[in-house]
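Predict the holo structure. Ligand: pyridoxal-5'-phosphate.
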Amino acid sequence: MKKLTQTITAGRDPEHNHGAVNPPVYHASTLIFPTLHDYEAGERGQYPHPTYARFGTPTSQALEEALATLEEADHAIVTGSGLAAITSALLSALSAGDHLLMVDSVYGPARRFCDQELKRLGIEVTYYDPSIGAGIAKLMQKNTKVVYCESPGSLTFEMQDIPAIAEVAHKHGALVMADNTWATPLYFQSFKHGVDVSIHSITKYVSGHSDLVMGAIMTTKALYPNVLRTYRNLGPTPGSDNCYLAMRGLRTLGVRMKHHMEAGIEIARWLSHRPEVEKVFHPALVTDDGHLLWKRDMTGACSLFGVLLKPASHKGLADMLDNMELFGMGFSWGGFESLMIPINPKTVRTVTADKWTHEGQMLRLHIGLEDVDDLKADLEAGLKRLKKSH
Ligand SMILES: *Cc1c(COP(=O)(O)O)cnc(C)c1O
């Protein structure tokens, strides 16, 4: 079945839900065992149904099944946030004395987790240039257990050569983890490209309606027991209402992504021709450094990209951002509404900081589901305000 069809059919079970098309919301903490025999099976981990809602309910299990189907993962585990998916996955594979190779363009809060928690636990962390590819071999150590990728990178949108990195990592006995939030389970088949653990912020496009925070870890069959163990020991369980809403979002993911992709590319291209703009960072544009990798590995793009403005005054920037009609200034992305925030990659990078020392301001845009002409008009007026206060 094609992906679009799977977004509709996966994780549904009307026969066991009184005919209801949507798996119902199970609000539960306690789940009752019918017999002592079942209770004892539960203690041995051999009871085939959920035993306690922290470990899942039929609502979360339906979502996990749907997500795993879409990304062709053996298993999915849903978490209370995307960050909880990242931290649980890393903790499942790293111990004191181990070494982690972390991409320099990783999602900022994940970087803080590495610097403030993993290092404290005696785990060595080395950041690497996202464009490193097979050159990662130079950084591999005897104790390297995980190579972590995020493609394209947060804020700066560098594509990574994940198959080349995976080949080297696997030769050295290390795992490859990748944050696949940008591409969604629809546009990058991580396991076919050598990834062992794929991580998502479900908060973004899968939920799609800016009303919940949630994550998912997808794994191979071999790694599932490890990831599950750590997940169970940490307990980052999402609530059932959020699982239900995420599933509802997933049903329209295909049509929403198609619109996000087309509108995002159109506006990115349009912006790249504006006189106020120095450069646009969007891997689906032929002018982008990562375009060939994107074309080779991904089957689509979302609508999140970077824009480097020509130098302008801070007052001009404020005039632009404070008065946007359709673009809100806020964190997160992947919802139905457009967003725009100023970003400063050089302050968070260590290996590639000198690549981001432009004088002009960088912006991160998320293109929502509004009419594209209305968005262009809003942007055009904003760019005029930017220039006027110059
Ligand atoms: C937002 C984001 C996360 C974290 O997700 P939350 O659900 O907000 O915890 C992780 N990775 C990327 C790439 C993100 O953009």
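The CA atoms of residues 163 and 193 lie 5 Å apart. The mean pLDDT is 97.
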